[in-house]
Amino acid sequence: MAATQRIKDFLRSEKPEGPCLIVDLKVIEDNFRAFDSAMPGTRIFYAVKANPAPEILKLLNSMGSCFDTASVEEIKMALAAGATPDRVSFGNTIKKQRDIATAHMLGISLFAVDSVEEVEKVAAAAPGAKVFCRILTDGAGAEWPLSRKFGCDPAMASDVLLAAHKLGLTAYGVSFHVGSQQTRLGAWDTALGEAKAIFDTMLQHGITLQMVNLGGGFPTKYLKSVPGTRSYADAIHEGLAKHFGNAIPETIIEPGRGMVGNAGVIKSEVVLISKKHANDNVRWVYLDIGKFGGLAETMDEAIRYPIVTDKDDAEKGLCVIAGPTCDSADVLYEKVPYPLPLTLSVGDEVLIEATGAYTTTYSAVAFNGFPPLKAYVI
């Protein structure tokens, strides 16, 4: 999404120094309403890791959002924003037992697991809690596929949930994530079929699961068009009806990128434009922000952000785009060079759009002495 007029007005009036992110809360408000309208029977658990700015959390809390958290600190952020513990889940499948205990002390009662070993920790530190088991998906169709780090084979999930039941926990449901920036509407169908099979197996053991966590994966628009929220909602509803019939369970979603990605724009500046040899047709354009300043998702050139300049009406030529640090990995786009105006000059301002998610949270602390990415929420 292009910079909103509110963001343009802020840049014009405030003239902030250095690279910075500007987030427009009105866009996030519209995004929440779109999810809520398209999936009225589904609870929204905002993925705090996408952007934990207090202003964002307070806005979403005021609109009735729940929160998916990855750490005790994120739990505290959600609670500080006004969320009640019953609207916060500890969605990380990799947790220290003492962190589980702290979360439980804070009132959190919903935990993600993907192994019997993790179930044992939850049972010891949060007796009586509800757990949902995350299963693996192949991530096909995602621009930022998730690795095998999270989730277990669907065939294992019943054993994990049975272990939870035997240890006094509530075996509550099944979770999956179809991959971040998922552009394939049918991605949820296979996972829903696997979830239903787990529900059926557990029922044979006398245990009724209650919830399917549909995860995140909802995209934001970068350079390519993506389906709208309503299209995803319709596809998910079809999958639920196909596999669960009239016995559709409680459902939750965990949008992060889809909630805040298009609400933010990073202002950056051209530091250097050069060539590597005399007859080089591809310029190197160095910005004052790179992988370590918040653009980590350009790793392997997975996410290609829209980049806008005041000179976009001029003829364009292909460029390698890199960051300012003394690290050779700090190159954003080289395998597929990026078209930028031939008239672009040192000192020119560039806007990197759709950067509201996974930028400030990826910003390294003072790598090479460069400060973390500054953020303004308007």
Task: Walk me through this protein's architecture.
This protein has 378 residues and is of the alpha/beta class. The protein folds into 2 domains: 91-255, Alanine racemase (TIM Barrel); 262-377, Beta Barrel (Lyase, Ornithine Decarboxylase, Chain A, domain 1), CATH 2.40.37.10. Helices cover 30% and strands 24% of the residues. It contains 10 helices and 18 strands. It has helices spanning 5-14, 25-38, 54-62, 72-80, 97-105, 116-125, 154-166, 187-204, 229-244, 257-260; strands spanning 20-23, 42-47, 66-69, 88-90, 110-113, 130-134, 142-144, 170-175, 180-182, 211-213, 250-253, 264-274, 283-287, 307-309, 316-322, 331-341, 349-353, 374-377. Strands 1, 12, 13, 14, 15, 16, 17 and 18 form an 8-stranded mixed β-sheet that branches. Helix 5 packs across helix 6 and helix 7 crosses helix 8. The radius of gyration is 22 Å and the shape is elongated. The mean pLDDT is 95.
